[in-house]
């Protein structure tokens, strides 16, 4: 046994060891520069900015979503849009895989002009008193923001709001093999058939090459028009600055996404916004506690407003849920005085994660936004998913493959098909079992996603931009990267060998014929 003295000394040893092993990062001045008004993209990373300020860093957040309560060491600059234009979701859904890429480009360019020319932005860009040790930017349609890294002579971190698409991974030289890694907006997942692989290859090539000629020049224009400072004329080309990003944090997780190769400098941090559930408001708590038959939570998030949907589709949803014996908590503000059956409770907003954590919740009817999926997986709730646009289809498709939910195609939906999906998920225990399996996988991580994100941000600070995380292939051009030069030589050599063999054999045969 340990003597008391030994115990003492081993205690001091451990203290010493902890002190030596805990690497201290000095407080840094961090700039978050994601001006586009894309709320769900911002919301996914906002917990990180807050956490960094709690840990003593001075965080300056240039975004369209200032906090409503001040936090120490967290300074908001913005917003840059005078009024958020509310888009009717039906404009977004009628798109195929090619028009959706074009719309993305158009949207990015338009929004960028709006935010960068805003008075608040001009004031911030012209102020000369700022200096930053690190710059974080968003990857969706705002490539020019990478110039802020050059402006402040600071390393840059990418924040990717969903699984990396080719427009982003190409700069990092991250493999995004078209045969099995689906584009986030392509409506497919898992084993792709021939047509799907063809579509995936076309979107992939558009993003790899076509985009560089149509879209990137526009981003450069925005950059050169608005991000000017002393020495900006001599900054590296936009492409090189994008190659030179130190770290990419991805709001995604292999448990709810696709298994694919990453570089060390690409880190999945999906689920940063998940907090331990808070207690519910009294009325909700009472309703949930009393629901002996269970509760269904029905919400299509902030972008999809049920009132925008075609009347007949809304009617399908309402007809089905009113017939159920479960209590239904429905995120919807009815337009006119509709009379709903007693099991329905409506409201403009609900604490989604706290509701999903209640043991009586049996089903979540969702549009399949990434954060909703993360919250359902976290709470092991089965899903009926009705995807509308962007990555929603892919998200739900993966849910269906993993066996804890059903996808309902909105355009083909009938009262019968929606009702069947809801009843099947409610009655078949297998969906709940698979939700629990998936939840376990999602939670089994060496550190919490938020801690992991903070660790890597501080890692870049501690290691002077962490040059070593960047791919060693960045020096190569496409010809070298895909070994086209080597392949040509090998083909020529093989041809020569076959040709010489042919000559020798021909010669031998003709000799034989002559001597015979
Ligand atoms: C923290 O950031 C704010 C806003 O950018 C800045 O005004 C302030 O000087 C910074 N504080 C320190 C100690 O650097
Ligand atoms: C790449 O980024 C580092 C900071 O991480 C910077 O020192 C270097 O100058 C950059 N190089 C180019 C070519 O932009
Ligand atoms: C880095 C930095 O600005 N830290 C500040 C965070 O906020 C506390 C309290 O307001 C200051 O004392 C720190 O200097």
Report on the structure:
Strand 12, helix 15 and strand 13 form a beta-alpha-beta unit. This protein is 47% helix and 11% strand. The protein is globular. The longest helix is centred in the last third of the chain and has 32 residues, at 484-515. A seven-stranded parallel sheet has the order 3-2-1-4-5-6-7. The protein has a six-stranded parallel sheet with strand order 10-9-8-11-12-13, with helices on both faces. Helix 4 runs parallel beside helix 9 (216-226) and helix 14 (370-379) crosses helix 17. It is built from 20 helices and 13 strands. With 516 residues, it is an alpha/beta fold. The chain starts with a helix and ends with a helix. One 2-acetamido-2-deoxy-beta-D-glucopyranose binds next to loops. It is found in: Endomembrane system; Endoplasmic reticulum; Membrane. Keywords: Endoplasmic reticulum, Glycoprotein, Glycosyltransferase, Membrane, Transferase, Transmembrane, Transmembrane helix. It catalyses: glucuronate acceptor + UDP-alpha-D-glucuronate = acceptor beta-D-glucuronoside + UDP + H(+).
Instruction: Walk across the major sheet and give the strand order.
Output: 3-2-1-4-5-6-7
Low-confidence stretches: 1-7, 15-21
Class by helix and strand content?
Answer: alpha/beta
Helicity range of the residues? 40-55%
Gross morphology is globular
Report the sheet with the most strands, covering strand number, pairing sense and barrel closure: 7 strands, parallel
What is the beta-strand fraction?
5-15%
Determine the number of helices (DSSP H or I, runs of at least 4 residues): 20
- Rg of Cα set: 28 Å
């Amino acid at each position: 046994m340990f003597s008391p003295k030994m115990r003492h000394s081993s205690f001091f040893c451990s203290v010493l060891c902890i002190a030596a092993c805990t690497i201290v990062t000095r407080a840094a001045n961090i700039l978050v520069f994601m001006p586009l008004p894309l709320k769900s993209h911002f919301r996914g990373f906002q917990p990180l900015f807050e956490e960094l300020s709690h840990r003593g860093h001075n965080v300056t957040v240039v975004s369209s979503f200032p906090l409503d309560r001040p936090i120490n060491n967290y300074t908001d600059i913005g917003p840059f849009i005078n009024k958020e234009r509310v888009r009717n979701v039906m404009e977004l859904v009628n798109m195929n895989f090619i028009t959706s890429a074009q719309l993305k480009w158009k949207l990015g360019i338009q929004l960028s002009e709006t935010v960068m020319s805003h008075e608040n932005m001009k004031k911030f860009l012209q102020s000369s008193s700022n200096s930053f040790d690190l710059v974080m930017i968003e990857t969706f349609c705002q490539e020019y923001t990478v110039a802020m890294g050059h402006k402040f002579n600071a390393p840059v971190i990418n924040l990717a709001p969903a699984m990396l698409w080719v427009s982003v991974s190409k700069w990092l030289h991250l493999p995004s093999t078209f045969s099995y890694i689906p584009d986030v907006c392509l409506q497919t997942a898992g084993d792709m058939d021939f047509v799907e692989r063809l579509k995936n290859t076309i979107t992939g090539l558009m993003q790899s090459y076509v985009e560089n000629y149509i879209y990137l020049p526009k981003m450069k224009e925005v950059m050169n028009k608005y991000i000017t400072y002393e020495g900006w004329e001599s900054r590296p080309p936009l492409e090189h600055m994008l190659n030179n990003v130190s770290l990419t944090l991805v709001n995604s997780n292999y448990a709810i996404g696709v298994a694919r190769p990453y570089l060390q400098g690409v880190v999945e941090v999906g689920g940063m916004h998940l907090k331990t559930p808070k207690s519910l408001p009294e009325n909700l708590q009472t309703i949930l506690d009393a629901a002996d038959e269970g509760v269904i939570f029905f919400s299509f998030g902030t972008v999809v407003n049920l009132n925008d949907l075609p009347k007949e589709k809304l009617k399908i949803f309402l007809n089905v849920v009113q017939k159920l014996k479960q209590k239904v908590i429905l995120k919807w503000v009815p337009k006119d005085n509709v009379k709903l059956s007693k099991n329905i409770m409506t409201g403009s907003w609900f604490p989604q994660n706290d509701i999903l954590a209640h043991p009586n919740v049996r089903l979540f009817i969702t549009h399949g936004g990434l954060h909703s999926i993360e919250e359902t997986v976290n709470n092991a709730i089965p899903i009926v998913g009705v995807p509308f646009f962007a990555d929603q289809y892919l998200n739900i498709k993966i849910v269906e493959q993993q066996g804890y939910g059903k996808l309902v195609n909105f355009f083909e939906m009938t009262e019968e098909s929606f009702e069947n999906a809801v009843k099947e998920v409610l009655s078949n225990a297998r969906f709940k079992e698979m939700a629990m399996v998936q939840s376990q996988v999602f939670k089994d991580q060496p550190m919490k996603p938020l801690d992991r994100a903070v660790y890597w941000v501080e890692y870049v600070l501690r290691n002077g931009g962490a040059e070593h995380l960047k791919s060693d292939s960045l020096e190569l051009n496409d010809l070298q990267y895909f070994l086209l030069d080597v392949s040509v030589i090998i083909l020529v050599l093989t041809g020569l060998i076959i040709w010489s063999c042919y000559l020798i054999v021909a010669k031998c045969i003709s000799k034989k014929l002559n001597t015979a």
